[in-house]
Amino acid sequence: MTEKAQTTPPPPVYAPYADGRGQLAMGLMALDPGQWVEIDGNLPTQLAIKRELLQARRDEVLAALPESRAGAVETRDLLLAHLIERFPERYRLIPAGIENRMTDENLAIAGFADAPLELAGRLVQEDFCLMQAGEGGYRLVAACLCFPSRWRLDDKLGQPLRSIHGPVPHYAERLARPVDNFFTLIKLDKPVWRVNWTVHDTPTLFQPDPPAVAAHDIDAANAGDRLWVRVERQTLRRLPISGDVLFTIRTYVDPLRALAAQPALARGLAATVRDLPLDSVRYKNLLAYRDAVLGYLDGVAGL
Ligand code: HEM
Fold first, then answer.
1. Residue ranges of the domains in the chain?
2. CA 165–ligand 1 middle distance (angstroms)
3. What is the pLDDT of residue 3?
4. CA 63 → CA 72, 129, 157, distances in Å?
5. Quick one: average pLDDT of 212-217?
6. How far does residue 76's CA lie from ligand 1's centre (Å)?
């Protein structure tokens, strides 16, 4: 056994698959506004990845339609106020902007005058997507999206929720109407959150494309180290001035082996994968890895 294989990674922070259900669900929960963003020890590394992407692949990770301006500025201002109040030991107002003490950076507000969501994205691990009411429902009007899970900002910019979710099996008949209705009803003081999950064959956070070719040497014996459970903690809130809806995505990636000492979670994920309709298995690019994942999880769960 290698040294790496002997250490067990920490258990996952979120396990939306624990209930064993594979059917699509809104899964919205009330969000404590104080818990809007989540910071952990990966922040410096993840912000470094964002900085690089925002430089080298800027058009892929940052986009804004002109009508997003007011909501984007509002997002930036809300985030700055939140960080300074909630994490005073980590963020501090400075004359021109904000200091991030975890990365020793000073970010000047004026330096991002044309891209307020970029400043937001450079401060925390979250990605930011701004939704605005329009024809056909709420549309994606701006985003700073450095950690997409197999979608491209360019494909979705300007699209309403129904088209954004076009590739998601069963979304149209099960979720489109309740999600559209929910967006019109989001109250100022009632933010919500939800969590979704998928399995990737890489821990890379910037993942705009589907996997090119499935690795056929992944099996139950090595799946713990070759596959990663990717979970998104998403929040939704209405912005008080513009009335737009802000969607944040905080991505957590754990090796499947993080479930090695968590038999109940392993059982939950296995049951969820078994419960997934075949088209959803395909959509999640899990077809090639399904047996490896189940073999590994059943072993952990003692089945
Ligand atoms: C209540 C709100 C929402 C619900 C219930 C919801 C639900 C879902 C679900 C179930 C999936 C499939 C995930 C999977 O099985 O791996 C999905 C994918 C996705 N969602 Fe949402 N979503 C919501 C809001 C949003 C918003 C506001 C955006 C704006 C950017 C968004 C963008 C996406 C994208 C881009 C995908 C991937 C689509 C693709 O494969 O091309 N979602 N969503």
1. 14-201+234-252
2. 6
3. 44
4. 11, 10, 8
5. 83
6. 23
Print the SS3 string covering 89-151: CCEEEECCEEEECCCCEEEEHHHHCCCHHHHHHHHCCCEEEEEEEECCEEEEEEEECCCCECC
pLDDT tens for 2-57 read 444 567 889 999 999 999 999 999 999 999 999 999 999 999 999 999 999 999 99
Asked if residue 200 lies in contact with residue 230, where contact means CB atoms within 8 angstroms, the answer is yes
Backbone conformation region of residue 231, classed left if phi is above 0, alpha if psi is from -120 to 50, else beta: beta
CA atoms within 13 A on the CB side of 236: 21
Cβ proximity of 148 and 208 under 8 Å: yes
Name which residue leads in pLDDT, 302 or 13. 13
Average pLDDT of span 176-203: 97
Residues lining ligand 1, Cβ inside 6 A: 24, 26, 28, 129, 131, 140, 151, 156, 164-165, 167-168, 175, 179, 182, 196, 198, 247, 284
Q: Which two tokens stand for residue 303?
A: 């089945």
